[in-house]
Specification:
Blueprint lengths: L1 E2 L6 E2 L13 H8 L4 E4 L4 E9 L1 H14 L2 H7 L7 E6 L1
Antiparallel strand pairs: 1-2, 3-4, 4-5
Length: 91
Amino acid sequence: MNRLGDQVGRVTVDQQWQIDTAHPVWYHNLAADPGAAQVQDGPEPFDVTVREVGGDERAAWWERAVAVFSNYAEYQGKTDREIPVLIASPR
């Protein structure tokens, strides 16, 4: 997961699945148990709840992600599936 500036949300793009036709196993694990994740952004990890965003909210987060990590647009162009955008919020 990558941090987008000061934003709390994170956008997931994993290079090993950027051109796969299916979401990776870890995505399904988070979807099944969105409260089972931790993020380390500093010296100590903290618990987060993860949610997938869609529609206008996804479009806004995706635009932010591509502005920071321009290769994300290239990743999306290599697959027919929509790369999911997950937001991790501290619990």
